[in-house]
């Protein structure tokens, strides 16, 4: 089939010509060359539109489930593993993200089913749509109903010693899943990734991995059911893990990671091959000490939605190497103190509440930096009411205040103007201070020996 | 600086536009598009020539020491890790290769120096220019003179159970080096590479690695000084090895491996990152069981010249990650029975003498397939003499016949016509048959336990 009648072929031509144009422009080519290259590109775009009825979009081939999600603007929302931003004060439009990523909404039916199967009240993150999207969760539950268990996999990129409260979200929820489903859990610390992406030494990245593991353990995970591993250690401790990495690496091309992650020719080969290392823990035989050589134990990955590109790639590869696709539960982002346009970032001290903050620091940060949905004066506020939808303090309360009725009352009172911004902030401060203090207490009790135990490859308790 | 006056910028444009043209052609774009793209390319090439005074060549940027060796035609010689071919019956022009690769010739002075330092007669591969090129060998010897030792690293890609006599060349020579210098040796079996490049399962590649190790051990390596490792095993057994892999991966871009190895966007990410895995054993702290955390033990790599691209890359990266550059000794190729235009290949049974061949098979193959430099009739041969320079049987004798005088007599007699082709072949057959039989005998004595011992990470004898 010639490109005249083959959308994919024409798409590939356009991609290549687009690269050529960008290169010529980047290198400040002379005007005639730029014009000629652009003319050709425009002509090819017109051909493409005529053939497919659609506008050509970089990174969105006419077919191919793996690549159809990236480089696509929904308003100004940008969501990938390295960037999250939006122009809306309410934060990213998650309903649109579900459509774009091709995942499924966590609806009331699914929440009810989890409640029914586990016999537990659904976690507030489920009740409040903080975990809002999934892939194949019904498949996990179908199997679970038939006494066929699964395992959990989540992770963290240890880019510094400092973790903030936003980092806790997947771990708080994963701990709950572990408790209510009674399943084993593996937690990947991607210290190799941080070394590849950041200007840090291997030694520092590994040290951060161990320090962060301490905070993760302080979330209360069950030693008998939890294995925490650093890539820099576990890769060198498990031929089975490396075998799965190589299997994935054989079945993903540079074109694919370029489409999914936006890598360029100037990226180092470590970044280019890294996605396979985040993919491999999705397959149970990467952990022979837990699952032997079984490949039939499905994996469920709770993570923030920005990590989904890794697992779309993983799900695309899985059947081609004879493995089960991992299922996913996606959370929204934890907003920065300054507003929901970006997520909380450890590299900006004022945007974050750190797990090491004192009660005083928490109070000051919330009072000084938390973006308010209130009115400018008390009078106006009393008259017109505040807007909890853009108020960061209220958003944080939806994450951390357990009592649904109390939260709803705060929402209504804030909207009506009965509750002032200062009072709302006080409410948040009084929720965060004991929560963080308790975390700090638990962390103190995590000894080096405990960390070592969690990070030692070993058998876990697993009923299946 | 605009591309009009910047050779590198123009080179990058040309590269991108070249990719675009290839893509459009590959996808069978319509004629007008192809023409437009090609016209632009030609114009840019003319600009490039005007600016640099040189013809544009893909993969040869105007500057950049790492990339200036590939995709370069010297006559018809092609030499890279996956292809070796030439149009000359004498084989590749190795003097030109030295210039192209920027290595140094192994001259008589170096051979004499090795003899003086070790107190041994130089190996026939050195006496006869079979190991013909080096990098930094004088540095190795300078240090050795000052009682500072080094270690040897060589390897094999196990693509099948069958090894042929050509595969033995680096191992025969490496064993000699190990004996005369009394140094430790690591041998990498790149089973992961073969999985990535070939249509083979991981299990088969690993099995071939172990089977090939048996043949390598049969060359007589000293268990106390030799560690043989499969990547699929050792990567999962040594965090130190993986750390060095990641270090190299951080310091090499896709652009670089594209220039050095000719990778494309359609290659899998495993191939793209693999060169780091072949690089890592060049650094002594990849083997803490042997060298602890020392990084000051220099590495000497005996290998066929087609492996040099991996180590040019390694030498480029080494100082940037704080390591010593490995030194190299390069061998010529072992020619196919059909002639020196290509090297012996395990995938063509008739081009190779296998280590498993019977005396009868050896006799038949040499008689039937070995390309002859003799004349068509006995009368002509007696009158005009034969040409040993293109005669494969004679070439093989230069590899395997130890006696220099006997070899020289054969050469002269063949050239004069005193020795007939049949007689020359008989001479080779009588050299190969006992050599291969002895190898087979030694191989039989290599037990599973012996293989296991060689392949177990452990301390080696090392005086330094």
From TrEMBL, chains A, B:
<dbReference type="GO" id="GO:0005524">
    <property type="term" value="F:ATP binding"/>
</dbReference>
<feature type="region of interest" description="Disordered">
    <location>
        <begin position="54"/>
        <end position="86"/>
    </location>
</feature>
<feature type="compositionally biased region" description="Acidic residues">
    <location>
        <begin position="67"/>
        <end position="79"/>
    </location>
</feature>
<dbReference type="Pfam" id="PF00458">
    <property type="entry name" value="WHEP-TRS"/>
</dbReference>
<dbReference type="GO" id="GO:0004830">
    <property type="term" value="F:tryptophan-tRNA ligase activity"/>
</dbReference>
<dbReference type="InterPro" id="IPR009068">
    <property type="entry name" value="uS15_NS1_RNA-bd_sf"/>
</dbReference>
<dbReference type="GO" id="GO:0005737">
    <property type="term" value="C:cytoplasm"/>
</dbReference>
<dbReference type="Pfam" id="PF00579">
    <property type="entry name" value="tRNA-synt_1b"/>
</dbReference>
<dbReference type="InterPro" id="IPR002306">
    <property type="entry name" value="Trp-tRNA-ligase"/>
</dbReference>
<dbReference type="InterPro" id="IPR002305">
    <property type="entry name" value="aa-tRNA-synth_Ic"/>
</dbReference>
<keyword id="KW-0067">ATP-binding</keyword>
<comment type="similarity">
    <text>Belongs to the class-I aminoacyl-tRNA synthetase family.</text>
</comment>
<keyword id="KW-0547">Nucleotide-binding</keyword>
<dbReference type="GO" id="GO:0006436">
    <property type="term" value="P:tryptophanyl-tRNA aminoacylation"/>
</dbReference>
<dbReference type="InterPro" id="IPR000738">
    <property type="entry name" value="WHEP-TRS_dom"/>
</dbReference>
<dbReference type="InterPro" id="IPR014729">
    <property type="entry name" value="Rossmann-like_a/b/a_fold"/>
</dbReference>
<keyword id="KW-0030">Aminoacyl-tRNA synthetase</keyword>
<keyword id="KW-0597">Phosphoprotein</keyword>
<dbReference type="InterPro" id="IPR001412">
    <property type="entry name" value="aa-tRNA-synth_I_CS"/>
</dbReference>
<keyword id="KW-0648">Protein biosynthesis</keyword>
<feature type="domain" description="WHEP-TRS">
    <location>
        <begin position="6"/>
        <end position="62"/>
    </location>
</feature>
<keyword id="KW-0436">Ligase</keyword>
<protein>
    <recommendedName>
        <fullName>Tryptophan--tRNA ligase, cytoplasmic</fullName>
        <ecNumber>6.1.1.2</ecNumber>
    </recommendedName>
</protein>
């Amino acid at each position: 089939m010639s490109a005249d009648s083959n959308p994919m072929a024409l798409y590939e031509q356009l991609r290549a010509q687009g690269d050529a144009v960008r290169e010529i422009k980047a290198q400040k080519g002379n005007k005639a060359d730029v014009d000629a290259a652009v003319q050709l590109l425009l002509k090819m775009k017109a051909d493409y539109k005529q053939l497919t009825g659609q506008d050509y979009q970089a990174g969105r081939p006419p077919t191919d489930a793996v690549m159809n999600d990236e480089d696509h603007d929904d308003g100004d929302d940008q969501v990938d593993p390295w960037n999250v931003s939006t122009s809306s004060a309410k934060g990213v439009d998650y309903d649109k993200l579900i459509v774009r990523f091709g995942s499924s909404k966590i609806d009331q039916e699914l929440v009810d089913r989890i409640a029914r199967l586990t016999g537990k009240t659904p976690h507030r993150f489920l009740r409040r749509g903080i975990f809002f999207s999934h892939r194949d969760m019904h498949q996990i539950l179908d199997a679970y109903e038939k006494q066929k268990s699964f395992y959990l996999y989540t992770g963290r990129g240890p880019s510094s010693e400092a973790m903030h409260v936003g980092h806790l979200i997947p771990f708080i929820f994963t701990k709950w899943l572990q408790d209510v489903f009674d399943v084993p859990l593996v937690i990947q610390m991607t210290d190799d990734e941080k070394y590849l992406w950041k200007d840090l030494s291997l030694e520092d990245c590994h040290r951060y991995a161990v320090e962060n593991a301490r905070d993760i353990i302080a979330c209360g995970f069950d030693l008998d059911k939890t294995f925490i591993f650093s890539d820099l250690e576990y890769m060198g401790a498990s031929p089975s893990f490396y075998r799965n990495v190589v299997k994935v690496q054989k079945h993903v091309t540079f074109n694919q990671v370029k489409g999914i992650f936006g890598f360029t020719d100037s990226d180092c080969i470590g970044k280019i091959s890294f996605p396979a290392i985040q993919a491999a823990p999705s397959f149970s035989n990467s952990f022979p000490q837990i699952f032997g050589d079984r490949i039939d134990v499905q994996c469920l990955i709770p993570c923030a939605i920005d990590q989904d590109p890794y697992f779309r790639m993983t799900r695309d590869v899985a059947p081609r190497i004879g493995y089960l696709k991992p299922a996913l539960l996606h959370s929204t982002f934890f907003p920065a103190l300054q507003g929901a346009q970006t997520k909380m970032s450890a590299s900006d001290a004022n945007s974050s509440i750190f797990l090491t903050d004192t009660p005083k620091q928490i109070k000051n940060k919330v009072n000084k930096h938390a973006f308010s949905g209130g009115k400018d004066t008390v009078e106006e506020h009393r008259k017109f009411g505040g807007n909890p939808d853009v108020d960061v303090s209220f958003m944080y309360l939806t994450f951390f205040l357990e009592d649904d009725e109390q939260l709803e009352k705060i929402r209504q009172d804030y909207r009506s103007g009965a509750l002032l911004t200062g009072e709302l902030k006080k409410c948040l401060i009084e929720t965060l201070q004991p929560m963080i203090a308790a975390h700090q207490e638990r962390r103190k009790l995590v000894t080096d020996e405990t960390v070592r135990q969690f990070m030692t490859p070993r058998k876990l308790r697993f009923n299946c």
